[in-house]
Amino acid sequence: MNVLRAGAVTLALATAATGSAAARDKDGTFAVKGVGNETCAALLQAFMEKKPGVDAYINWLEGFLTGLNDATPQTYDTAPWQSPVILFELTARYCDQNKEARLIQAAKAVEQVIRPFRLAQRSPVVEIKVGDRTMRHYQDTIRRAQEILIKSGLLTGKADGSWGPKTQQAFEVYQERSGLKKTGLPDQETLFKLFFEAHQAALAEEPRGQQAPARQPARQQQQGGARPPAAGSGGQGQAPASQPPLNLQVR
User: 117: which residues sit within 8 A by CB, 6+ positions away?
Assistant: First the structure.
């Protein structure tokens, strides 16, 4: 675990009720099934005691996000690059701050955090190879990462979502500059820091009272100082109406 390491950049994202209004009754409530009714304290205890039941929480969370993919307009994948590990860690961090909350509240808070980075439409999958390591991401995830790297001055050219040595080099420079492990890969920690810092920078640049809607992907990043390579190729109960904020820190 420990994909999200504490550090200087603080993310404090206020949360609100989510989901389609059509899925709720006239009072704005809906039934919660399964482990979604369990408390955060129970989840944390299961994790600390390494109980097999932790898998049930992860599976429920993935089912919750799948339901959002089906019910949310203009959404293909709510969590296009986030692995089950990072999703569970986000959930556990919320639960550590709100032990009496239920899993449904934690899931809604996590959805609020990752909402700006959702994939609106289906995208081809790109295979990424660096050395003997291979991973797969949506082409749109890589394209959006390239846009941030270009804006930060670490990459030049057009963001096309293809993977190649120039994009790999830009990732390496970003990782080195950010104090991350230099893998050259769009791994979970790198993407988390890259996208969330860019989102915070975009919000800071918006005029007060005119910030971009939360569901719009943010593609801005701080200006960097490295010389850029060229871009190119060769992610049972009634539901409460709201929940406390999820405060995150990334190094």
Answer: 80, 81, 144, 195, 199, 217, 218, 235
Q: Name residue, tokens 């709201």.
A: 242
Q: Which pTM does this prediction carry?
A: 0.75
Each residue's pLDDT tens digit, 194-245: 999 999 999 888 776 555 454 444 333 333 444 566 555 444 555 544 445 4
User: pLDDT for 143-195, tens place per residue?
Assistant: 999 999 999 999 999 999 999 999 999 999 999 999 999 999 999 999 999 99
Fold of 125-205: Muramoyl-pentapeptide Carboxypeptidase; domain 1 (1.10.101)
Residues of the chain within CATH 1.10.101.10 domain(s) are 125-205
Extended strands (E) in 152-213:
none
**For residues 140 and 209, is the Cβ–Cβ distance under 8 A?**
no
The amino acid at 135:
M
CA distance 228 to 166: 9
Q: Are 115 and 79 within 8 A, CB to CB?
A: no
